[in-house]
Design brief:
By secondary structure, the chain is an alpha/beta fold. It is 28% helix and 30% strand. It is globular and about 75 Å long. The protein binds S-adenosyl-L-homocysteine. The site of S-adenosyl-L-homocysteine has 19 residues, from helix 6 and helix 8.
Length: 400
C-alpha cells in the first residue's frame, strides 16, 4: 500500500470521530504533515499520533475530510464493491420485497458523498462530494458488476455539489434509458421521470410509511396534502378509502398522479387538485363569524417539503407547520386520523410535535398519538451521525 499523507486533528476532536461521525471540518484540523491534493485519500490522527481513520481530503469544502473507514483502506474496485454489497444486504434484510429502493445512503453506509437509488433495473447515482465524484468510474464498474442494470444515470444537480467545488452534471453513465419509467412500490405502479423528478425520481424514503398510513384508510374520506405523485393517496385508495383528494401546487405532479391513479385502476376513488396547500386549507376553513367549519375528512396526510434548509429559518418553519396543522385539524372528524411528517433535519421530533400541540390548543382539540414514523430502512439512521435522521412523523387520533 502506498503511504498516505497524515492530517492531525486538534485536541478534543478525536472523540466525535471515534464514535463514528465521519466529517472533519476545516476548523478541527491542527495541521497537515505534507501537502495534500483535493480528492486524495489521507490518514487522520489525533495530536498524540493515535490513528483515527482514513478519508478523502477536499480543501474546497467546509468539510475538509470525509472519513470512510476507521482502518487503513485502499479506494479501489474491491472497496466500492464491498461497501455497496454490504449496503445492499441491509436493504434485502429490511425491505425484502422492494424492487425500487435506495441502495447507498451516503454516511449511513460509510460512503459519505454517494447516493445510489435503484428504480427497478435502472440505477441513479448522485455524487455530492469531490472524492466520490472523482471515483465515479470505479463506482459505476462496481454497480455494473453487482446489479447488471439496464442503465446507470447521473443525477448531479444538487446544490450541495457547489460547496465541494463541483459543477452540475446530469446524464447517462452506462447503458441506455430515456423517458418515463414504470416502477412498483408495494405493488402499486408509479411512473417516474428520473431526469427531472424530485430527489432522484421520487420519495423512496416514504415507501414503508405509505403502507403504514394506509391502514387508517378503510372506508375513509382522505385528504393527502402535498401529494406529489400521490404516494399516500394511492395507497389509501387501494386500502379501501371511500374517496381521496390529493393537493399539490405542481401541475406536472397533479397530471402525473391522475394518470398513475388510472393505471392502478383507482381513478374512480381519487382526484388530484392543483393548489397551494396553505391557500386551499384556508379557503376550506373559511366561515362567517359564529359559524363552525364542518369537518369532513377521516384521514388527513400532511407531507410538506422541508420548510427550512437552515437553523435560522426554524421559527418561520414552525409557524408554517402550525398553520397547516391548525387548518387540517378543523377539517378532521372526531375519531379521524392525522398522519403528519417533517423532513427538515433542523426541526426535530420535539419541536415538530410542539408546533402540532400549539395548533391543537388553538382549535381546542385533544389529540391521541397512536404511532410514530421514521424514514424507510433503506435510509438507515446512525445515531452517531445526527444528520442521517431527518424524516419523522406522527399519527394522531382526534379525541371524540
Ligand atoms: N407526499 C409526497 C412527497 C411530497 S414532497 C410523496 O410521498 O411522494 C412535497 C410536494 O409538495 C411537492 O410535490 C411540491 O410540489 C409540493 N408543494 C410544495 N409547496 C407546496 C404548497 N405550498 N402547496 C402545495 N404543494 C406544495
Amino acid at each position: 500500500m502506498k503511504p498516505l499523507s497524515t492530517i492531525i486533528v486538534r485536541p478534543g476532536e478525536a472523540d466525535r470521530i471515534l464514535t463514528g461521525h465521519p466529517w472533519v471540518y476545516h476548523g478541527s484540523i491542527h495541521h497537515l504533515t505534507s501537502p495534500v491534493a483535493d480528492g486524495e485519500l489521507v490518514q487522520v490522527k489525533d495530536h498524540r499520533q493515535r490513528f483515527l481513520g482514513t478519508g478523502i481530503y477536499n480543501s474546497k469544502s467546509k468539510i475538509n475530510i470525509r472519513l470512510l473507514s476507521p482502518e487503513r483502506v485502499e479506494l479501489d474496485a474491491h472497496f466500492f464493491e464491498d461497501r455497496i454489497r454490504a449496503a445492499l444486504a441491509v436493504r434485502q434484510r429490511h425491505l425484502p420485497a422492494a424492487t425500487s429502493f435506495r441502495v447507498v445512503n451516503a454516511e449511513s453506509d460509510q460512503l459519505s458523498g454517494l447516493i445510489v437509488d435503484k428504480y427497478e433495473d435502472v440505477l441513479v447515482v448522485q455524487t455530492s462530494a469531490l472524492g466520490m465524484d472523482q471515483r465515479k468510474e470505479l463506482i459505476v464498474a462496481a454497480l455494473q458488476k453487482i446489479f447488471k442494470p439496464r442503465a446507470i444515470i447521473e443525477r448531479n444537480d444538487v446544490a450541495s455539489r457547489k460547496f465541494e467545488g463541483l459543477a452540475d452534471a446530469n446524464g447517462i453513465l452506462a447503458g441506455a434509458h430515456e423517458g418515463p419509467l414504470s416502477i412498483s412500490l408495494n405493488g402499486l405502479k408509479f411512473t417516474v421521470n428520473l431526469a427531472t423528478g424530485h430527489k432522484t425520481g421520487l420519495y423512496l424514503d416514504q415507501q414503508m410509511n405509505y403502507e403504514l398510513v394506509a391502514r387508517f384508510a378503510k372506508g375513509a374520506q382522505v385528504l393527502d396534502c402535498f401529494s406529489f405523485l400521490g404516494g399516500f393517496a394511492l395507497h389509501a385508495a387501494r386500502a379501501g378509502a371511500a374517496h381521496v383528494v390529493g393537493i399539490d401546487q405542481s401541475a406536472d405532479a397533479i397530471a402525473a398522479a391522475t394518470a398513475i391513479a388510472a393505471t392502478n385502476g383507482l381513478a374512480d376513488r381519487c382526484n388530484f387538485e392543483q393548489a397551494n396547500v396553505f391557500d386551499w386549507l384556508k379557503s376550506q376553513t373559511a366561515v362567517a363569524p359564529h359559524e363552525k367549519v364542518i369537518p369532513r375528512y377521516d384521514l388527513i396526510i400532511l407531507d410538506p417539503p422541508s420548510f427550512t434548509r437552515n437553523r435560522a429559518a426554524v421559527p418561520d418553519a414552525l409557524r408554517g407547520y402550525k398553520e397547516i396543522h391548525l387548518r387540517a385539524l378543523k377539517l378532521l372528524r372526531p375519531g379521524g386520523v392525522l398522519a403528519t411528517f417533517c423532513c427538515s433535519h433542523h426541526v426535530d421530533a420535539g419541536l415538530f410535535e410542539a408546533a402540532i400541540m400549539d395548533a391543537a390548543k388553538d382549535t381546542r382539540r385533544l389529540l391521541r398519538r397512536i404511532t410514530s414514523y421514521s424514514q424507510s430502512p433503506d435510509h438507515p439512521i446512525l445515531p452517531a451521525i445526527a444528520e442521517t435522521e431527518y424524516l419523522k412523523g406522527f399519527a394522531y387520533e382526534l379525541a371524540r
